[in-house]
Automatic annotation (TrEMBL):
This is Transcription factor E2F7. Residues 81-90, 493-513, 869-890 have a biased composition (Polar residues). Residues 1-95, 341-361, 384-406, 492-513, 638-672, 852-890 are annotated as: Disordered. Residues 111-180, 249-334 form the E2F/DP family winged-helix DNA-binding domain. The lineage of its organism: Eukaryota, Metazoa, Chordata, Craniata, Vertebrata. It comes from Bucorvus abyssinicus. Its main location: nucleus. SUPFAM superfamilies: Winged helix' DNA-binding domain. InterPro entries: E2F, E2F_WHTH_DNA-bd_dom, WH-like_DNA-bd_sf, WH_DNA-bd_sf.
Amino acid sequence: ENIFDRSRMAPKTPIKNEPVDLSYQKGCTPERNPITPVKLVDRPQPDPWTPTANLKMLVSAASPDMRDREKKKELFRPIENSEQSDTPDSLQCDMVDDSTADEFEKQRPSRKQKSLGLLCQKFLARYPSYPLSTEKTTISLDEVASVLGVERRRIYDIVNVLESLHLVSRVAKNQYCWHGRHNLSQTLQTLQEAGELQYGELMTFFQHKEQDMEYKFGERKKETITDSQDRALLDFSEPDCPSASANSRKDKSLRIMSQKFVMLFLVSKTKIVTLDIAAKILIEETQDTVDHSKFKTKVRRLYDIANVLTSLGLIKKVHVTEERGRKPAFKWIGPVEFPGKTDELKGRSPTSDPLPGTQRGARAPYKFCAMGKQRFTRHVSFNSTQPCEGTRRKVSSEPNSPHQERQACIVNSDKHCSKMINLAAVCRQKIEEDTSKACATETILNSAGNPSITSTLSLLPIPGDSDFCVNPLPQAIFPVVQADVPNLLLPHSISSQAPHPSTPAASKTENGNPTLFPNQPFLCFPSSSLFMLCGGLQEDSLRETLPTTGDVGNWSAEAQAAVPPAACQKRNSHKCAWPSAPVDNEEPAAKKQTMELNDVPLSLIVPKKPFESPKAESSPGSGCKSAVYLEAFHPDGPEATDQECLDSQEQEKWSHNNNSDEPFPGNEHISKENANQPLLPQYLYVQPTAGLSSFNFLLSANQAPGAISLAASPLPSLSIPCVMVPSAALASFPLVCSSAITSPLSPVPDGSFSAATSMNFSMSGLASTTPVFIGTTTMVTPKVSPTPSVDPQQPSHSTLHLSPELARSCGAVKLDSPVCMGHPVTLLKLQQPSSAPLTPKSIRPARHEAFFKTPGSLGNPVAWKKNEGNQPRSASSVQRRLEISSSSPD
DNA sequence: CGATCCCGCCACATT
DNA sequence: AATGTGGCGGGATCG
């Protein structure tokens, strides 16, 4: 061995090794010796070598040397242990060799040489940036550590960051798989998307004021950030992770932090992020409290991450001079634009075309959202959600509706923000996992562009209970949204909902579609509190009520499109505000939304007259007055529509003619119709999108908790596809929809409605308790949807709950309609659990994915079916119920 | 003296 | 219990 070393070492560190081994081993050999090499290098440096050269040398030689050394170690360990003097490493030895202590000291590898960045470079040098797909490179931590001459601990630091970017993935203990940068851009895109959701606003905010205001706003920023963080996004866990189980500690800091950190860059306009800001943002919790120590620790970690990112060539260190002075910062020098993303944006953008409907349809927006998130989310486990929820609730309760508020806060005041932040922070931690899910949800929502929904979510929680929050929100929101929509719509275009009494008729129509049943919707009651109803729509009825599907679709599309992310966010903020803010705000917001968005999507809200239309309308208290109607919106209706298209066509008949692309017109019409509906709405209808043929949900608003049971009854009569309500479950929760309806507002067409809607749900219904979610896959909501963005996460949680199964189901669902997005959760799609996506294993991921994807996935009818199949398995009791009840044929 | 960040203790997770 | 992971922060080094 020695010989070996010598030969190799000779050039680099000739003597050292030998001497060390022989005589000095004791001291020198310590395990760390590996490092020694470095030192060796150093020594040489003095002479000819340049730092770089040394490195190279090391790298090249390292492996062999290391090996030898290791062997040595083993050989000598006994000795070492016994004596272990560990002098400064081999240095001493070196010194000896060299003859001077001084030298030796000098030699000692400077810290830099041992830096993580350098180590990372060496690490990266070992693997091809773009490995052939054929070759699967596995990385053995032990091996690498020994080769690079470092402790394994250091390797973890590197690998964790690389893993966060999906350059590697853990396959087993001590084993990682090298993927290279093939997927880097995709990962970055995903992070960017996620980052925009989480930090977009914040960053924007900051940047505007940033430098000047930093101090001033620092806190706010933090807050905002925190809020924004929401954690939802992060998830990241990688796709691969087989071991889902283990994530607890794992998806923790370094990985998450790394992703967040990257997100900040991607979201930053300047692409420059100062460490302190990043640290603040990343310190979820207490902004104020931020202990110095905590901050300090965070910064340390950021340095670790930054070193790795620097080695990857993604960032570089820079300094920004602010008022205060010069601050360390890092500038993103990696890829900035990602094709994919754009799409999303487009989709979101209001102007963007109406959804094509079909495939894309799936309304891409949601889908994509989901997609991105999926990855991230995957790790998240649903389970966690529950706990989270609890937490969240608490949290939320504390502040007021913090989450939502936060956005608002940003806009508005800090106070709330801070609270929110705190809450958010808490939630995050707890929920992070969930969050991811939530995030997805959020995204979806956002994409859907249903601000209202979002808001709803947030709002919901608030209702008296502390809990409201997050969890339920999404789901709840959905329904709400729908409900809201009408309201909203009404105000605008049609305040006169009443005018369209037609609703009842619509209900009739419903009967017409038996088919729907097959599809059936499902209900999910995530926790007890929520539940969803999905029913096949009866197109007929819907039609009556609704405009043609086409129109609807357009709306939705429009809505979705219309609502750009930003818009959504903003809206959300507004929404957020709502919760805290008085109703008034809401109204306006609603109006705005409607106006802008044409929330209409909901348009469908049809009263479900069938059942109780009478009640619905009149009875405020009674349940959901508004039926939400979710038709599928198929924008174009072409393909996606396929499924739904039919319906849509029918719908069209009944609906207005507004098919025209123009969203507004159509929307308006719709809205009007909707408006009408709203009044009635006893139930919510949700059409599923195409695939489903239709899901309809009915929620009886009124029933609220108890009501639920009622609702059920109605169903039968109605023939509506399904209504699922577990009585028990129901009991506990109020239906959101209904609640909203219930709310005093009810009758009022406009603002009141809107406000009521979202808010109400949560609250009113809630009062009783829990909000109900309707998730449908389909939802028109999109437009309506306000922006969920902020809260989404939270909501998402709730969603999550549902989710696993739901998610699956959802996944199955195609939601063309934007709406779906919003409630991914809801979507559960009960109908069929889509098999495919959701395999158990996939579940997690699937969930997320499905969840998110749902929309997208929705696109594939088939998928749903599959899902359906799956669902059964996975389906929780609730689902089962659903299944049973719905027994969707499909 | 502030910026960096190495180093490795130690807790938690997994085997 | 052993081993794998990785949070965390003391304190050394750099500039």
